[in-house]
Task: structure prediction
Amino acid sequence: MKLELKPVTSSTRMPDLVTGKIDLIAATMTKNEERSKQIDFNYMYFYTEQKFLTRKGTVKTLADLAGKKIGTSKGSTSEQNAKKALPTATILSFDDYPPAFLALQQGRVAAVTTDESILVGLMNATKDKNSYEIRNIPISKEPYGLGMRKGDTNFVNFVNKTLLAMEKSGESDKIYRKWFPGKRFFKITDKQ
Amino acid sequence: MFNYEFDWAVVTSGQYAQWLLSGTKVTIELSVVAIVLSFLLGLITAVMRMSNVKPILWFAHAYLEFFRNTPLLVQIFFWYFGSYKILPKVINDWLNTTNFEFSAAVIALTIYTAAFIAEDIRSGVRAIPKEQMEAAHSSGFSYLRSMYYIILPQAVRLTIPTLINQFLNLTKNSSLAMTIGVAELTYQARQVESYTFKGFEAFTAATLVYLALSIVITWMVTLYNKHVLNPLGVR
Result:
């Protein structure tokens, strides 16, 4: 079976899966109860937390962001979490993360908020990454899962088996070290 | 029959209905401001386009060709993201303290729609016999005064039905503002969909609101035709 990759955005990935345009979502998708009602998840394969990407030195604590404009992506858990954590801030949702980051670069928003893994990617893609920072102000836990259509239990079991085998053989550790610095502090197990 | 449980309460009561309501308010604000401004800008541009002064005519002609032939979405991104690169830092910093998302959307909608309105008004002016302009000149009116007192009042009255078309387009085009974070109706419908997964209900509600807005605008045309144009003997 050949792998075919299709880019999606936070707001289109679930409709695409449900309508059959894609068969598996591997798109920094957090497992939560609300989504589990519509689609099936496998075991957690990655763990990160939602944080804020800001210009260096502008933000020290969560309170510094009260009443400011914050950018994020439509249809993501980041949006809902940000609204809960900062009820006085204005959350501007763009179609995807690059426009949100562009808004941060142009000073139109004080911060971009989403999973730290995505923030790291945004920061590293720009030339002046030293002017930005991700402070340790987590506002949620984000366990990632691969999304599949509800009722597709054969596929879900196959995916879980494959991931557990990768964990046992140490391959998932190798892959993590290839892309991320620092220690990996989670493992793929069948307890999630 | 359908593999889906409809839940209309989601969009008719509670906080999600509040979101749709606030989105409707922003759509109406965007539309009304842009309609008024685009009408004024369209008028001015039409007069410039018909001027005898060549530089003015060329500028108006270039403006019209450019803004009518580029996609509105591109124009919205230009005013919001693109303008940052060419404006001085002082202005950018000031803009960031304002509600620039809304302003950029209004600017884009205004300039885009004004280009179409200008052409519609020009057609209206062409329908006025040119003897009127000549008579005005011979009575001592300058070009601008002839336009203002004699030609434009008649031309605009003739083209108002066509202009209402442009205003309808503008109201629907206002949904594009969501791409720069303006929380108007379509944006809120997508919000409701992503929180509740009741996409069908959310987008049906938004469609009905847009339909209602369009019907109000169209109804005003009928009223206008009945009470202003027809009594004048214009069909």
